[in-house]
Amino acid sequence: MLAVHQDVINIVQAKFLSAEIVKSIHLNVSALDETYNDDNRILALVEYNKTFALFVLISARKKPISISDLCIETVIPIDEYFSCDTEPIEESQSHIIFIITSKKIKLQFKIEIGIESSNFASEVIRSKEVSLYNPPVFVWLDKYIGTMSQLNRNSDLGEQSDTPIIRQRITQGTTAINRESMLKYQLKLKEPEFTEKQEFTIFVGTWNVNGQPPSVSLRPWLCYDESPPDLYAIGFQEIDLSKEAFLFNDTPREAEWQKYVMEGMHPKAKYRLVALARLVGMQLAVMINSQHYPYVKNVSYDTVGTGLLGKMAVWQFGWSYITPPSASVNCHLAAHVEEFERRNQDYKDINARMNFKRNPIAIKDHEQVYWLGDLNYRITDLTTSQVKTLVARKELNKLLKADQLNQQKERGNVLLDYTEGDIKFQPTYKYDLNTDIFDTSEKARPPAWTDRILWRGKGIYQVEYRSHMDMRISDHKPVSSLFKSEISVVDPLKFRKIHEDLLKKMDKYENEYLPQVTVDQTEVKYDLVKFREPQTREIIIANTGMVPAEFEFIKKLDETSYCKDWLRIIPYCGSINPGETCEVKFEVTLETSLQNIYDILVLHLKGGKDMFITVSGDCQRSCFTSSIAALCRINVPIMQLSEEEWRLAENNESGVLYSVPREIWLMVDHLYRYAGTVQAVAESLLLFLSYTKDPVIPFELHDTCIAAASNFQNCRQIILQRVPDLHRNVFLYICMFLQELSKYSNDNGYDARTLPLYSVTSCSGIRYVTRSRKTAGASRILSIISS
């Protein structure tokens, strides 16, 4: 491709799906009849799955500048009936006639002689040779027939629209066609015939409210534009900074802020709440214009916590308008200037761990994504004074070069495929409360653009990107962005007619199709599986049949789930078009004591046969999943024990060597000696107490603990008489450590009332802190013993 045409080929490529590759184009082509036609045409050679087709495009300009300048005039598959030739033009040394024939079709074009025509003709001839060695399956062309001019649709070429329906080979065996799957697929191909593009306005906003209650109207922020948006996506961070909100993940502030949001919606329209997601002081609310609400479908959301304080909430939704799958992400990444690598990792964790439990499952699978929140990226290598000076001079471009997010994006470390609009507003953090003055406190933090909005996907156009300086109740300023998003709207009459025509054709051929898939491996083996170190393997499911194949992993008889608890399948269900493949990931995470892992998975094909896949691997011993009694009987790291030594310790047949496991002693001792710099050790200690084979407070005593929670003597009696000796030693050891921490409460901010809440979960074997009776009972015992 000539370099001068690279921008044009990019525009032409946007007319097709990503898997349909534009191999070559020829510009400034004229149709030939009795006179030369002055229409600007482009010939495009397109490849999909080793099959080729020649597209004739009409351009509104001699050189198109956007996809809207192009429309499809003719589509010709390059098969056994296709041929091309050239003829000279009398009295012309600069142009020739390029002739294309296929069945009853003959097209003639006037093209200029030169390198461009030579290269294009060579690519067409090569594609013809390749097509002779591949099955002529042109299902992918059917969706473009509906976009052609009416004249061409009514011609012999229009007969190609039956390509996916006409029998190309009879499948072996006899099974009824999957009607629903086939109908969905055919309707998808014919979308251009019954839909038209419309633009919807989306308002995306983010605000870190610094724990402040709502006290001012949000209309200056949410009603900034004259026209009402079709949809709002509003994200908050730090709604409540109290200890109770962090510990119990519950706060009345959520309802208060949501009330102000609903009252702050644009007065020229009525809105309804679509989804509300929250996580530890964060909130993401989605509201839609009431007239669109009946068309909303497939709404789901998920939340992911990263590290100790990293937080994120996300939602996805769809419309019955045939819109691409959309998602919004509200996140609050790690703070402080030097923690940019932690922020990068938080971003990666969010993408890796998000699971909507329905298609699309992951963030990356959505065609349109809006990413918003307090990303916490700061200005680097400049002092506070220098930053304020550049802001005062309005030299924002110099500041943006020192912006960590821009730097990390350029290096490919974060949000690589996302776009952010030009920032023309001053930094949104940090301000003195109720002012527009940057931080004048003792810390005097440098101003920074911590609050950002980015997006990814086709059909999204940013109209505005701004901050709102008149909102002063927080140390952050809210940010908003107005987008125009392309959505396909259905014409009901055209849809009904096409739907009826497809049903008639399917009635005729429904017994001629059978879903068929192949799997590249049916035995999945893992390397040595270690505690909480995920391992991933992939299998490839290929659709070798003539119709879409819907697959799903189903549970076996007498089992409650389709796979074991230690296994995660992504995706566990889906649909594969003919000739395409799907990559399925098997992720193993070990959190219990197992010698090996083994499972037989049932891959069910809707309308077809089941397949069986085995998953296996050996597991490494770990002190994290061992019993307290066993660990007190060993004097070396667990991996250095022989099988016989470990068997004796596990069965309590060897002598007790320590009053508490040496692993606990080592971690507590490290925390005591180096307090303040050992976050990883602290997290390891909590993990250790959470995943022991039997909890410090045995399960059978939980109800007794609840009953005794209000009486000191009863609590003491339970610990001294009911709890096993080794467990009691561990319990008291942890309590003494907490008691030691409480002596320095002025320095570390902990006290005898809050410390037990951090460890009660681990000692009770409950892995999530909740406002529950069990937590309250065990917390009472911990607080009594440690005070």
From TrEMBL:
Gene3D superfamilies: 2.30.29.110, Endonuclease/exonuclease/phosphatase, Immunoglobulins, Rho GTPase activation protein
Compartment(s) where it occurs, according to its Swiss-Prot or TrEMBL record: Cytoplasmic vesicle, Phagosome membrane; Early endosome membrane
Biological processes annotated in GO: phosphatidylinositol dephosphorylation; signal transduction
One GO CC annotation: early endosome membrane
InterPro entries with a match to the protein in the record: Endo/exonu/phosph_ase_sf, Ig-like_fold, INPP5B_PH_dom, IP5, IPPc, OCRL-1_2_ASH, OCRL1/INPP5B_INPP5c, Rho_GTPase_activation_prot
Record keyword Lipid metabolism present: yes
Endpoints of the signal sequence: none
Location of the Inositol polyphosphate-related phosphatase domain: 198-491
Keywords: Cytoplasmic vesicle, Endosome, Hydrolase, Lipid metabolism
Alphabetical list of Pfam families matching this protein: Exo_endo_phos2, INPP5B_PH, OCRL-like_ASH, RhoGAP
Superkingdom field: Eukaryota
SUPFAM superfamilies according to UniProt: DNase I-like (SSF56219), GTPase activation domain, GAP (SSF48350)
Record has Transmembrane as a keyword: no
GO molecular function: inositol phosphate phosphatase activity; phosphatidylinositol-4,5-bisphosphate 5-phosphatase activity
Family: Belongs to the inositol 1,4,5-trisphosphate 5-phosphatase type II family.
PANTHER family: INOSITOL 5-PHOSPHATASE, TYPE II INOSITOL 1,4,5-TRISPHOSPHATE 5-PHOSPHATASE
Protein name per its UniProtKB record: Inositol polyphosphate-related phosphatase domain-containing protein
Annotated organism of origin: Aromia moschata
